[in-house]
Design a protein that fits this description.
Largest sheet: 19 strands, mixed
CATH class of the largest domain: Mainly Beta
CATH architecture of the largest domain: Beta Barrel
Number of helices: 15
Number of strands: 32
Shape: globular
Distance between the termini: 39 Å
Structural class: alpha+beta
Radius of gyration: 33 Å
CATH topology of the largest domain: Porin
CATH superfamily of the largest domain: membrane protein fhac: a member of the omp85/tpsb transporter family
Helix content: 10-25%
Oligomer: single chain
């Protein structure tokens, strides 16, 4: 009945049809990367099947609401947000598509003997098309040659030959050849040839060989009257540090630094010229470089003081081989900015039976040019309050304040970076690359948190961090120095619980996290999206506390012939632990309106130097809106342990953590209509303790699969472009322990019946 009522063909003429299938069949079994080739050929289909909305072809909504009288709000809504224009099947376009595919294979992919045939069938006004591809063998590169009538160009080509993307036996592929032409273009533009273009590279091939091999020639010849092979160098560089197009600047610069002219209309520069100079890669007398030009724009645009940056090259009037630069820096109107925000949330804690409402207030005060070198200082504050509607009492409060001072360049505050450069004999160019590519921040703050039924803690922290952008999809964050003072106070009711678990009891203690030369390091790699819509990223993090204290303690004991442990007081000790975490994220775009995303995460933490446990706040947990969504945050684990198996108390909040974590997620995402999206997901994972915990039986890893929790669910998302508001509903599929539901046999699996709407999660942006 549903299929009949949503049949698009009832809106078209009897002699018309709609395309519902378009298949590509390969007759060759040995095609290299057949999936990618199929994806490219699918893009050539003139009449592809329409996308679907809830399994209904979107052209149905177009056809159903196309009459002039269809002006009701629901009809307008359907046309605007649900419909795709209906495409009436045309048999001539089937043959045309086959010809395009054949031409693409022969002219772009090196299958010079390829043939593509087509056929179609029409039944009940539904058309199905089929394209049969016989690619035959793909031709390959035999030898690669470069030809030019310029001696210096020839020398450059010899220098970069080892970086070539095309070698013997490379496939004849137009995309690969274009990438190689781009590589040569970039190399020549970075060596002074400002007017050289990709079009100046002519690609030629000799296929006289009989073994399906082709000799490839990259011909770089200068046409008569062309300046493509003319070399340029940088001339005068003028920097207008407080540019206003309605004002004229004096002829004489206010300051000259490293051959660059700095101008200002005021008595004092807004930003110190030396701070600006570090962000400019262009140098007078240096050979023109395209990379220097764009990197200068990128680095100047990153300065918090300036709103607009414009870099304008021009020919020198006295020499036609010199390029002068005018750099215009337009500052923000206001040096200070402030922001104030509020938040409100409501949640129900599952079996705990609590209904919570919370409110938060956060604000920031930012100075864009704190010390005159475009440093940014951020003063941040936050207050949050949580109230239990069920108990008519406040549940938690947190207060935090922090200050972050950020420098746009590398600050060698310990003097160790310069020492490393000297020892390794690092070149000046490489030093500048690291110095300018790195930003430095110094932060300090205080946080107070009180969860009334569990514990309260206050934390003082200070940290120095380097952020390095490699420019090649990698971002690295390194904190050599950091100190945290953590003071715990456990509530009496919760103390009774953790006293039964030595693991938990040892982790709730007041400690100091230390790191003088190494605190933590994190790296993020993000791959570019492939032509087939696939991308991936890697996120890694390593944290160490107490390393220097541990070594100093060992050194002292060896000299003093003693065996003591350094300790600040009887109630305050140094935290000695190592924590490492790695996460891989995968994303595959299926079509413009849908995709599949996946994540795998693993974490490991361990105490050392005689410490009994990793501090609680540094342990791993799972559950919640960005983890395993069928369970609450900190509800799962560790291992097969469940608090409800040993106590009937359902009013206690969740607090479970562990030393080892694994988590796997997969999610299908698709557009619904307008700004609405939907998702279907499966989550799995758990946490474990490294050692046996007598207070929590089954907490250690004994059987990986049996102790793995699995949940599934669906989500509704609102895409507001700048952020995504997410509503996810998770349902338990497999628990970490066995129960006998309804008196039946013991089982790990959970029926969806009786779970209601599931575990509701509300969050901002995608979980991964």
């Amino acid at each position: 009945m549903l299929i009949s009522s949503c049949r698009s063909t009832k809106f078209i003429d009897q002699n018309q049809a709609l395309v519902r299938e378009a298949n590509i069949v390969f007759k060759d079994d040995d095609i290299n990367d057949q999936a990618n080739l199929r994806y490219q050929l699918e893009g050539l289909i003139s009449q592809p099947p329409p996308d679907k909305f809830l399994f209904i072809p979107r052209d149905y909504f177009f056809l159903k609401n196309q009459d002039p009288g269809d002006t009701l709000p629901r009809q307008n809504f359907a046309r605007k947000f649900l419909a795709d224009e209906a495409i009436i099947f045309d048999s001539l376009l089937v043959k045309e598509t086959a010809e395009k595919m054949q031409s693409f294979l022969r002219n772009k992919k090196g299958y010079f003997n390829a043939t593509v045939t087509s056929n179609y069938s029409v039944k009940n006004q539904i058309a199905k098309t089929k394209f049969t591809v016989l690619a035959n063998d793909q031709y390959q590169v035999d030898s690669v040659f470069f030809r030019t009538n310029d001696t210096e160009i020839s020398q450059i080509l010899n220098e970069i030959e080892g970086e070539s993307l095309i070698n013997k036996n490379s496939p004849i592929d137009a995309t690969l050849f274009e990438r190689e032409k781009q590589r040569i273009f970039q190399a020549l533009q970075d060596r002074g040839y400002a007017n050289f273009l990709v079009n100046n590279i002519v690609l030629k091939g000799d296929s006289s060989n009989q073994d399906k091999k082709i000799d490839v020639l990259f011909d770089i010849a200068q046409a008569e009257g062309s300046e493509a092979l003319k070399k340029y160098e940088v001339g005068t560089i003028n920097i207008f540090t407080d540019y206003d197009q309605d004002r004229s600047y004096p002829v004489i610069p206010s300051r000259v630094i490293n051959g660059k002219n700095y101008y200002t209309m005021k008595n004092k520069f807004i930003v110190k010229p030396r701070a600006i100079d570090k962000q400019i890669f262009l140098k007078t007398g240096k050979v023109y470089s395209r990379s220097d030009h764009y990197q200068t724009i990128q680095k100047l645009s990153a300065l918090s003081t300036y709103k607009f940056v414009k870099v304008t090259p021009s020919r020198d009037i006295t020499s036609d081989s010199i390029i002068n630069y005018d750099i215009y820096l337009t500052p923000h109107k206001h040096r200070w900015i402030s922001d104030l925000g509020t938040g409100l949330f409501y949640s129900t804690l599952g079996r705990v039976g609590q209904q919570l409402v919370g409110v938060s207030l956060d604000g920031s005060l930012v100075n864009r040019n704190t010390l005159g070198g475009s440093e940014k200082n951020e003063l941040l504050g936050e207050v949050g309050l949580e109230y239990s509607i069920s108990n008519l009492a406040f549940n938690a409060i947190n207060v935090g304040i922090s200050d972050v001072l950020s420098y746009p360049t590398q600050v060698d505050y310990l003097g160790l970076i310069g020492l490393i450069y000297s020892i390794t004999n690092t070149s000046t160019a490489l030093r500048q690359k690291y110095e300018v590519g790195t930003s430095t921040s110094f932060s300090a703050g205080f946080t107070y948190q009180d969860i009334f039924n569990l514990y309260k803690n206050n934390t003082f922290n200070a940290k120095a961090t380097y952020q390095y952008d490699t420019g090649k999809n990698w971002r690295i964050s390194f904190s050599p120095t950091g100190f945290n003072l953590l003071n715990f106070e456990v509530r009496p009711g919760f103390a009774d619980i953790i006293n039964r678990s030595p693991f938990l009891e040892r982790s709730f203690k007041s400690v100091v996290f230390t790191g003088l030369l190494f605190k933590d390091i994190a790296g993020i790699y993000t791959s570019p999206e492939s032509p087939r819509g696939f991308s991936w990223s890697l996120i890694t993090n390593l944290e160490l506390s107490g390393g220097e204290v541990f070594l100093a303690n060992k050194l002292y004991n060896s000299i003093a012939k003693d065996d003591i442990n350094f300790q600040l007081s009887d109630k305050l000790d140094f935290a000695n632990f190592m924590k490492v975490e790695a996460e891989v994220r995968l994303h595959q775009r299926i079509n413009p309106s849908s995709s599949i995303a996946g994540r795998a995460n693993v974490g490991y933490a361990s105490a050392y130097s005689g410490d009994p446990a990793v501090p609680y706040i540094k342990q791993f947990f799972v559950g919640g809106p960005n983890s395993i969504r069928a369970w609450q945050s900190r509800e799962l684990g560790p291992g097969s342990f469940s608090r409800l198996l040993i106590t009937p108390d359902t009013t206690q909040q969740f607090y479970q953590t562990g030393d080892f974590k694994t988590e796997f997620n997969i999610e299908y995402r698709a557009d619904l209509f307008w700004i609405f999206e939907y998702a279907l997901f499966v989550d799995a994972g758990n946490v474990w303790t490294l050692d046996r915990d007598i207070g929590r039986p089954g907490a250690e890893l004994t059987n990986f699969f049996n102790q793995m929790a699995i949940g599934w669910g669906w989500g509704l998302r609102l895409d507001f472009s700048y952020f995504n508001l997410r509503f996810d509903f998770g349902y338990k599929l497999k628990k970490t322990f066995q129960t006998n539901v309804g008196g039946g046999e013991l089982t790990y699996f959970v029926s969806p019946i009786g779970q209601g709407i599931g575990n509701a999660n509300i969050a901002i942006n995608y979980p991964f």
